[in-house]
């Protein structure tokens, strides 16, 4: 298939199985080479061991299904367990591994081994900087990493032996992960297609297609993975880069400041000034998330220390009882500010955001020095206000001073 047609019809769009993609494929490295690499400092190596419940093993009288069917049937094996070991490994690690159901994966093999790097010649129709690495896996019979999705395109080239691939090509497949496994494994996986790949066969998967590859006998797979930086990753790096070019003199400025209505308030003009200082980048956020970001930023800004949370929560009944005679001090390192939010307020404390009754937000931020309990005791929305007060005291943002 010409590259133009592959790119037009499949790339980033739909999976493609390419039988004999590399005719008479000779793997550039052996399982022993891979194990050797996995023992080297600096190599990114993992071993994934699948602890298969005994009732799922082939030959079990209670369970006549062939093993491959079980492996791809999604919800059937949620009682199974997965163990992940991270390298570098040594001979003893390999000696301890079971006979079946484990796999060794080494990333960036193309950087260590020029013969593996040469595989990339077959992918020159894709810009070289778009390719992340060649990951090589060796699996014992039944080994694999479980059903998952990748967020980047991958070419799964079968190197040695056979692997059964199952994929789910339905639009919007279930994306929930199991919470009992450190690998990001899909909670449910119902494949629409299954194939056994032989050496030289290759499966192309665009991002987001659930898949599961299980070794049928010993096998080696070469995964040519693309690099697709997340927008969040791009933005962070871009922001640092763009910030470097800004002069020190460009900053938050308020030559038009008028006397504050309430000294703790972040009002709309303050938010407009913050947007002005940021320039076009401020357009990335709508008003609400922008305001919460600014409130968090400005109350965290340049705080060299942080508040120490209480070891045990303050008894709420005792707090209510002591309130009229209590005096609270703000932790000196924790800035407080608030902003109007509908009929209530958002309270910002040392980078944290709390919903607060308006009167409470004002009272907690409005005055320099101590906060008088008797003033809080007179405020409306007492239940919500007291809950907030308890949270702030427990977090160490407010200290109760003894009279
Ligand atoms: C493997 O080689 O076992 C895993 C490759 C993948 O599913 O991305
Ligand atoms: Co994958």
Structure, explained:
The protein is α+β, with helices and mostly antiparallel strands and 403 residues long. It has 13 helices and 15 strands. The chain has helices spanning 3-9, 31-38, 67-71, 91-96, 109-112, 114-118, 231-244, 268-278, 287-300, 316-322, 358-365, 373-377, 382-394, and strands at residues 16-18, 45-51, 81-86, 102-106, 131-139, 154-167, 193-197, 202-205, 211-226, 327-330, 336-341, 344-349, 352-356, 371-372, 398-401. The strands form three sheets. Strands 1, 2, 3, 4, 5, 6, 7, 8 and 9 form a nine-stranded antiparallel sheet that branches. Residues 58-71 and 73-77 have low confidence and may be disordered. Succinic acid is lined by residues 103, 137, 144-145, 150, 154, 211, 213, 221, 223.
């Amino acid at each position: 298939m010409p590259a133009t047609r592959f790119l037009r019809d499949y790339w980033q769009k739909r999976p493609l199985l390419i039988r004999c993609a590399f005719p008479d494929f000779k793997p550039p490295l052996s399982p022993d080479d891979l194990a050797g690499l996995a023992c080297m400092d600096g190599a990114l190596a993992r071993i994934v061991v699948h602890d298969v419940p005994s009732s799922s093993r082939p030959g079990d009288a209670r369970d006549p299904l062939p093993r491959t069917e079980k492996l791809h049937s999604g919800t059937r094996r949620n009682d199974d367990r997965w163990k992940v070991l991270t390298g570098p490994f040594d001979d003893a690690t390999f000696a301890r591994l079971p006979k079946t159901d484990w796999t060794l994966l080494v990333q960036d093999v193309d950087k260590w081994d020029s013969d593996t790097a040469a595989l990339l010649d077959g992918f020159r129709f894709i810009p070289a900087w778009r390719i992340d690495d060649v990951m090589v896996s060796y699996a014992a019979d039944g080994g694999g990493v479980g059903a998952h999705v990748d967020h980047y395109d991958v070419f799964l080239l079968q190197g040695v032996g056979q692997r059964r691939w199952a994929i789910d090509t339905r639009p919007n497949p279930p994306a929930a992960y199991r919470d009992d496994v450190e690998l990001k494994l899909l909670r449910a996986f119902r494949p629409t297609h299954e194939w056994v790949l032989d050496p030289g066969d290759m499966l192309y998967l665009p991002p987001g297609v659930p898949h599961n590859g299980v070794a049928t006998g010993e096998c080696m797979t070469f995964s040519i993975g693309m690099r697709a930086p997340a927008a969040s990753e791009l933005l962070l790096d871009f922001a640092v880069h763009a910030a470097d070019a800004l002069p020190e003199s460009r900053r938050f400025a308020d030559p038009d400041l008028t006397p504050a209505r309430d000294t703790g308030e972040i009002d709309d003009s303050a938010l407009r000034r913050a947007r002005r200082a940021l320039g076009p980048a401020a357009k990335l956020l709508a008003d609400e998330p922008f305001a919460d970001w600014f409130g968090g930023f400005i109350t965290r800004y340049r705080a060299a220390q942080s508040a120490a949370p209480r070891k045990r929560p303050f008894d709420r009944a005792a707090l209510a009882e002591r309130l009229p005679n209590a005096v609270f001090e703000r932790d000196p390192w924790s800035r407080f500010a608030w902003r109007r939010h509908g009929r209530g307020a958002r309270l910002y404390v040392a980078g944290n955001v709390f919903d607060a009754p308006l009167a409470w937000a004002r009272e907690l931020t409005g005055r320099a020095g101590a906060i008088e309990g008797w003033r809080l005791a007179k405020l409306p929305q007492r239940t919500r206000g007291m809950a907030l007060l308890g949270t702030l005291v427990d977090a160490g943002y407010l200290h109760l001073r003894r009279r």
